[in-house]
Structures are given as C-alpha cells and as structure tokens.
Structure prediction request, 308 residues.
Amino acid sequence: MHAIVLKTLFLGLFPLSSCLFTSKNSPENQTNESAIHLNYNQKEAHRYGGWYCPDNLNTFPAVNLADWKNVPVVEGRLPTEEEARGEASLILVDTVKYPNAKALNTPLPQLAKYHNPYTNREDVIIIIQAISIQEDSIVGFRFLNGGNGSARLNEVNFITQENARSMIGGKFVQHELKIKAADSTVWSLMTAAKNATLMQITFDPQNKLAANWRSEAQLNYYYASKDQLVNTYLSDDFWGNCYVQNDFKQNLYTEKFFLIREKDKSFCSLKIVCGPYLDDYPQQEKVLLNWAKRIKDLSEFGSLIPKQ
Prediction:
C-alpha cells in the first residue's frame, strides 16, 4: 500500500499510532502516515488522497474555531520530510516518482466543509496543504476536533472568511492523565455497563438521568446536551490500544477517548478530546476532568471498586 510519503511515516499519538478508517459503526485504522483509501470508481495511480486519521491527536490536536487561522502551514511549495512529520503538513510526495508534483497556488490555511463518509455528517476542516499530482488535486486537512485526513479538491467546499466569522464556534475540552494501572482495569471502568454507577456521580451528581441512560451511551459517560448520534466506534484492540469515538449531529459535537498502552504494562495513558462546547465549556471541562480523575483513582486503588 502506498502511504502519504510512499513509505509510511506513522506519526500518531505515539511512535506507532494509527489512523482510523471506518464506515459507520465499524472503523478500522492507521496513523499520520499509513493510509487506507476510499474506493473510487476511477483507477488510482498515486493514492495520495482519501485517508481518515481522527485519532492522530498528538500531531494534530483539536483546534477551537476561533483559532483556525493560527495553525502552522507550509505555503507555496512542497514540504520537506521534517515538515511532513510535524503539524505544518501532511503529504510528502516522492518527487522522483512524481517529478511534476507541485503545491497548488492557494493561500493556506483555509476553512472548508467536507462531507465525511465516516462520521456521516458535514464536518468543518482546516485545509493545511494543497497539491497537484498526476493532473489530480489533493488537499490535506486537520479536523477541528483533532486528527487529520485527505481528500480530492472537488470533495471540499471552501468557507469564505465572512461566512467563517458568522459560524458558531465553541471550545474543545482536552485532558490527558497517566494512570498507574493495567489498561484492562481502566477500560472496564470506562465501558463495562456493570461499572456505570461508579462513574455516574461525576456527570450526574443529582441523579437526574433516566434509569436506562447507559443503554443510550456506549461508555460510562453521558453528555446530556448531545442529540442525534450519527457515528460510533469502540474497540479494545485498536492497533494495540483502546479507542472510543462518538459523533453527533448538533454543533458537530464529538467525543474521543484514547487509552494508550505503555511499554510498562502497569501504566497506561488516557487522552480525552470532547466538544465543541459553547456556554457550558467551563462546566464540561470540570466534569470531564472529574470523570477522568475518578477513573484514575478507582483504577489505582482497586479496593474502591465494589465487587459485583
């Protein structure tokens, strides 16, 4: 398989992170440099366009809409390999194999809308790269909620700066905790329905949720202001790690929970990205931090978990 650089870079959350490739309810994955490609009717020669890496949260963290103009880019030329390994670019073209490849003459970054076949909604993206290769035009972009992807130029719709100013923004909550416990213990607290009541107090202290709330959620966390779920994915074997992503229609709200297995199996790291939130951002930032801390405390002091 050809990759972004035609020699996989794999620049995800850690040295061997992955990119998530999914159709509704069943993603598969890969990192900032391996790329699975959408199925196109026409024969593809270069395979530089069409990958989906929403889990690449280290290299491409979430960006609040108000800050989209400030993301780093490489403009007017093809990036170096070092630049393609960082936050400023995505696609490193093999110019020996494709000597006519070049950067498109377009200002960067640019805000755009993209009908994402994986989240089943029209997502807002930040285009950070645009190239011409084999008479084809490809854009590399980052999602506002973190991660990156690529598409053909005709698959995105640019948003004018005037229209961008009128868009409802919001902010993303981002937390990361290192937990001194086996990932299986943490994962059970996050996802096993039998442990739901242990976590409910962090986001529903007054016990207002209906008794069947867990049947409407894929993990032991619930945001009451969410609406229609358009995509969901949960796996405890996500390229050796654990990953949950839930995408909703209203305000393009997304939840991402990435549980990373460390080399030392007595530790693991939990990375959370949720949002965007509007007026309730301060409250949800605190709620998610309390939720993560309770996961950490219960995992590290297993005696606190009641036997069931």
Observations:
- The first strand starts at residue 19 and ends at 23.
- Residues 1-17, 21-44 have pLDDT under 50 and may be disordered.
- The radius of gyration is 20 Å.
